[in-house]
Amino acid sequence: MGELRGRPDVHLGWGAFAPAASGATSDRRGVHYSCPVGAANPQSKVLTPPGREKPASGSGSPGATDRARGPGGAGGAAPRGARLLPQGWAIEAGVLLALAAFVAASAWLAASAAAGRYAVDTSGAPVPGWVSGPLQGIASPLTPDGFSVALLVMLVTFLAVLAASRFVAPAYAIGAIVTAHIALALAPPLLSADVFGYIAFGRLGTVDGLNPYLSSISAAPHDPILPYIFWRHARTPYGPLFTLLTYPLVSLGPKGMLWALKGLAAAASLGIVALVWRGAAQRGRSPVRAALFVGLNPVTIVYAVGGAHNDLIMTLLITAVVVVLGTERGFGPVTGPLWQAARPAPATYRRPRRRDTGGWATMFSGRRRPDRRAGPHPLAAGAVAALAIAVKLPAALLAPYLLTATRRWRSVLLGLALAALVMAGVTLLAFGAHPGKMISATFDQRPAQFSGPYWLARLLSTPEDSALKTGCIVAAGVLAVIALAVAWWRRRQADVWIACAGWAFLGAVLAVPSFEPWYVVWILPLAALATGRSLRVAALVLTVAVIAIHLPVLGFVPAL
Question: Three-state DSSP class for 190?
């Protein structure tokens, strides 16, 4: 790498790499960058940005000559990031401290929650040892002030790490995400009793021999899980695929089933992070930043993983659809220099212009014809989308946007229809022909205290009646239709449909009367992979707002 030092078109930092052969180009603003292509690219030229031309010998001022000579010696320019190296190391050290603080706060929150009953929702029943889990007795019991401090520390460090994500090495990011997930997976069920409902509906269909879409949990009054259920007269609102998934776990008993569902939720969340990493790398963006955006979000860690919610399984399948269709748009697999490019460096990769051709630039230009052998068929995307809908109905909001994601939309529609037919047959055999009952059970949700209609009613000083809720739903539908029209109008641009679908999910989350904090997870992968920053900013604002309205130090309650 010695021969590269001093060249103005190559920036060497602690995350830089030196390919065997490289081409360089510039964007519309004249900023240059290097593109490793693995072979000489005859259509690429090394361009020098304006104001950095090397002065001719014997001309120019002595100061200009000294600046051009730089610390690298005569005739050589200093690396662009060399003078920022001490500042870079200071930022890196601060980022490592922030990651350590986030992991420590999450581990302390998990251990403190296991020592008491605060933030453990058992619907008023005593917290037995099998619910507290293996972390019981490690720390002192959790208090409202302690919960507020832990959640604020996680939020502040998350935002700080996200802002300085270019200085985070992949190993540190992955280690922090995995450690925080393990800590919350070993914690008792936090801030929600939904996981006990999963257990009860599974036992209702197997041990008690009843249909969970026709009978409520109260139909089995002697079931040992009944004291931990709050909504005892409700039928299951979840999809048939998730309900059938809980049936084999019933053999583990209530204790084993609880911790199996906790582990399943943590694994699904880590799977989302892995797919987001893959999708960001496919699109030439920073995988580290995208993974931190989703996997280190306090709402994901505390509410979704801590509460073992099945929304993570639905979101995992939605993210898989995005990654499958990413290969359809001409984004190739992750190999070689791209992994090195994901490492932090003072000079970051910039996406080439569309007229650049050849090598790596062509791979990420978005204009290459899709290679039908490079990735999964769009038929698989439609099938996975149908499975996501079978886990939880809100995933159906993604379906119309898939038709704008690829030219082979007929294959997506065919895969969606075939998987839907298969799931309909399985549902008919398992639960009978009761589609109306199943759909009505899905929409039979109790209103939440801090939903979008609740805050709108307070803002307008009007009662939160059915007219207001209907208006919010209509407004969300109008937003979804507008987003779909934009996705169709701009369908020739890669990944526009992801942002449009994300805005539709955001409107649904804000309009639904039964809003829960873990619904934010629906938006995070789409925001991480979408083009532009607006959806990511909206997701971050929603994250901060959700945490703020659940802080006991501000007079709120952590659970709904």
Answer: strand
Inter-residue contact 511 to 499 (CB < 8 Å): no
Q: Which two tokens stand for residue 196?
A: 């006990």
| Integer Cα distance of 420 and 408 in angstroms | 19
DSSP string, 21-51: SEEEEE-TTS-EEEEE-SS--TT----PPTT
Q: Give the separation between CA 40 and CA 21, rounded to whole angstroms.
A: 6
* pLDDT tens-place string over residues 479-492: 999 999 999 998 88
pLDDT at residue 248 in the model: 95
| Short-list 243, 240, 210, 311, CA closest to 517 | 311
Helix 496-511 crosses helix 534-548 at what angle (to 10 degrees)? 20
pLDDT over 90 (residue 252): yes
User: What is the total residue count of the chain?
Assistant: 560
The pLDDT, as a whole number, for residue 79 is 45
Q: Which amino acid is at 28?
A: R
Checking if the pLDDT of 213 tops 50, the result is: yes
Name the nearest CA neighbour of 325 among 489, 495, 521.
495
Distance (Å, whole) CA 130 – CA 118: 16
Question: Cβ distance 103 to 295 under 8 Å?
Answer: no
Structure confidence at residue 358 as a pLDDT band (50, 70, 90):
very low
Which conformational region is residue 203 in: left (phi greater than 0), alpha (psi within -120 to 50 degrees), or beta?
A: alpha
- Please choose, from the candidates 433, 412, 402, the residue with its C-alpha nearest in 3D space to the C-alpha of residue 240: 433
pLDDT at 105 over 90: yes
Residue 463 pLDDT class (50, 70, 90 cuts): confident
Would you list the domain boundaries of the chain?
A: 1-68, 91-340+378-433+461-554
> Going by C-beta distance under 8 Å and a sequence separation of 6 or more, which residues neighbour residue 444?
234, 235, 237
**Strands 32-36 and 22-26, how do they pair?**
antiparallel
Token output for 437: 């009952």
pLDDT digits (tens, 9 = 90+) for 305-333: 999 999 999 999 999 999 998 865 544 34
Report the 10 Å Cβ neighbour count for 470. 13
Strand partners, 24: 34
